[in-house]
Amino acid sequence: MSEHGRRRRHRTVDRVAWILEAAAREPGGATVAELARTVGAPASSVQDLVNGLAAAGFLLEQHGRFRLGPAPHVLNLIAGRVVPRISQAELNELSRVAGTPVLLTVRVGLDAVHLARGGEDEIPRLLPLADEHMARPLLRTAAGRLLLAFTDEPERHGLLDELARQDPEAVAEFRRALPAIRASRVSRSEGLADPEVSALAIPVTEGPVVTGALVLTHRRRGRSERLRLDRAAARLLAHIQERRM
To answer: Where do the HTH iclR-type domain residues begin and end (predicted)?
Structure first.
């Protein structure tokens, strides 16, 4: 693959992304010193980046603290409905129909990030993954594998090249599973990210485009959980199809 097709980390881009995330996670904003500690860079370098981000509307400064500005939201509006929009009430209803917790998940770079959840998880330690929108490795989650499978092919090749540097075994296994995931439009994780968790992901679509994933989870005990998730997914897909008619 050409250099153009490769997806390599870029130090400055990483720092900008970390700054924006750190500012977003602090309701009252963060100081330059706090952001520098988060990024692991000199305060002078971070100050330059923060000044540029504030000038472009990606950050807002109030009393020496920086919080996320309106620019990311505006870009999303310009692009249209890139991020799947499912209300909390809808997610709770989907969880009720499925009979399992439901997570709404998107791909962010090389990670899967849960945007929201419906229902109560029977494994309480997993709740922060959704409530705090913690990043999870793409190839170690059912949602990540599904979203990667339905990423445009040139983009997917670039992402897999980068992921192969970190986890070549997971990439090789994913390549073997890719045709089945695309054919069934279902992805599974049997303890990939957590040995106690079984998960199944189905796509969220906008027209022909997969914009996110709905993840059903259950405590992993054996084959019975796989069958239970299969039945839950079937109920959920039937419910979604009925609503569209």
So the answer is: 10-70
For residue 39, what are the CA distances in angstroms to 4, 13, 42, 98, 117? 27, 11, 9, 40, 29
Q: Of 168, 170, 208, nearest to 189 (Cα)? A: 170
pTM of the predicted structure, to 2 decimals: 0.73
- Identify the segments of the chain with pLDDT beneath 70: 1-7, 77, 79-83, 122, 222-224, 245
Euclidean distance between CA atoms 91 and 118, whole angstroms = 5
Please give the helix or strand (H or E) that residue 115 lies within, else none: strand 111-118
The rounded mean pLDDT for the chain is: 86
| Candidates 3.40.1170.60, 3.30.1490.20, 3.30.450.40, 3.90.320.10; CATH matching 88-244 | 3.30.450.40
